[in-house]
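Notes to self after the call with IL:
- keep both proteins in one doc
- input above output, always
- annotate only the second one for now

Protein 1:
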Amino acid sequence: MLNSIMKLAAVALAGTALAASTAQAQVKLPPSVTMTAYDTGTSGFNITVAVGKMFKDKYGTDARVLPAGNDVARLQPLRLRRAVISAMGVGVYFAQEGVFEFATREWGPQAIQITLSSIDCNGLSLAVASDTGVKNYADLKGKRIGFVVGSPALNQNALAVLAFAGLTAKEVKLVEFAGNNAMWKGIINNDTDAVFGSTISGPAKELQTSPRGITWPAMPFSDKAGWERMRKVGPYFTEHTATCGAGEISKDKPVQMGTYPYPIYSVYGSQSEDEVYMLTKAMIEGYDGFKDNAPGASGLAVKAQAKNWAVPTHNGAVKALKEAGAWSDDQDNHNKALLKRQDTLIAAWNDFMKANPSSEPAKFTEEWMAVRKAALAKAGMTDTF
């Protein structure tokens, strides 16, 4: 009798081991996936290419990365289901909120949600050409600041850094460019003096080796008033000590500045839970296959994920994070509140569109922003714009 019980136990253990093995091997991606990212050479593009190579090496899936110079262009293929995931910046927050370039008849608030994002050794701030003589951001008064048409993230971020120094758009000269790479070419060609970006982006390194050179003025954490001003313009920024990047930034020469997750791998809430689960799980399980293949990629580690950020996590990604032991009840409650915020904004938008809004673009945006503010106030939710 005892022998029979032992045999049954052995069979049960073997079955459990087989089930565990099957669970680890259950990731199944389609034959090909299309992703969008910033322009070629940017850190977001490079990281996405590294992830795509891992998809091919580990899962046999061909990955196509579409470069785009602004948030609208990155999000449009995802919206039209021509891409399955997008490496967004903080523009994903603006899309959710329906503000700036998303406060138009063609867009409005988007049910955009996130999977994994990266916070690494790099920082995000205004890169300044060394030949300007600028030592701190207050010295940018009267200087030329790069803006990108159709990119509220880059533009708002630049304004947030200026706000840290007590400056506004009226106290600098804004120079517009068609895309992110064009803007960086502009600073190299002396068409502008400062541009927003990541300390580890390819264009930042190009500026470093150019005759103009590159510098990243510090944003001391001790300057509480400066950080308060900055967060009024960019509430998603957090204090961060950058230890890698173009210029003299290193572990030996760290620079205090701001950051937020980037890239933020984003999907639509309407995408199937299984599809997003598989994509997220593939990135988690394939981490070792891409973490060293692009600067900043190591920041996608599952244990390093930003918690309780400004945009909700997709249910499929939540499932993968739970399996990896990287999700808590606190995060779940925060996520539900963010999903409710999205529902509130989209409901307000739908009512607004039924009310025959103005056909004049500027008036349309003005009317929407008023409706948006009222809807959030009624729901007891914060409006940072």
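Protein 2 (the one to annotate):
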Amino acid sequence: MNHIIGSKSDSSAPAVKCLVVDEESVGQRLDNFLMRHLKGVPKTHVYRIIRSGEVRINKGRAAADTRVQIGDQVRLPPVRLSDKVAEKAANPAPSREFPLLMEDDCLMAIDKPSGVAVHGGSGVSFGVIEQLRQARPQAKLLELVHRLDRDTSGILLVAKKRSALKHLQDQFRERETGKTYLALVKGDWPAKLKVIDQPLHKFLLPGKDGQDGERRVRLTTSEDPDGMRSITLVKVSQRLAGASLLEVTIKTGRTHQIRVHLSAQGHPIAGDDKYGDFDWNRQLLKPRTGPGLKRMFLHAWRLQFNHPATAERIALQADLPPELKAYIHHAQHQTPPV
């Protein structure tokens, strides 16, 4: 489905487009269908052109919640992009492939490196998904199934079909997946502390000039109407000099859940620049001997899910990256403090 979106810098005016709905888009709401094809166009503008009747399905007016069907012809009016969005479109993300753990017609599982956002936004021009799309221009669809923090490495699922995306996201939402991380935390984790069941509350830090700042998460109480129940299971894998390597399984996938839950117990994750022990992080960065730890030690290690096409139970594992392996090897031969 080829289409052209004009911008203010174009020498020619943007043109009317007609999109034909394929099998990957069947059942989508019209507003979501349009946002997928009008990248960078504000949502308010998308809803305005729907309400005004400028968007037509098979020559008839349609509402935002209309479900598109295969073969539908969707008319889009000329849409101009802002200079900022047009500049971004003219300078796309660099093409990049990532280490593959598995791939078939429905999905791909990659081993995401630390330091790479999963998508652009919030001051990040591009992430994994934008780079993958540039590397695979022939792909009809590439969508993130779930998220990982920028500094977290490990298993990340990307759907290649709309049906697979919905099926997998339903599994994540219904807690039918198994997600286990490896985390290095400060101190000696109590052997008896195996379950953390504490609700979390998301909030924004104050920003400059009245703007919203960075997103943060804190523990809250069951009485908090905005609190989200969050369950984390913890198993000690190794006890090291002044630290513990944990296998952490999350039953709920809340923002920053592992980082906040572990830190609230007095055992912050090594290298965590938001919820960590900053003095300890500095010591880890420049130790007296051995390799320093230049990133957060949180790795999405194992993932289990039901294949969206075959229902087969899939079990994936991404080994620790070399820099984390090297740090563990060094720590195994140290005496406190790390």
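Annotation: Confidence is low (pLDDT under 50) at residues 1-12. Residues 109 and 157 are 5 Å apart (CA to CA).
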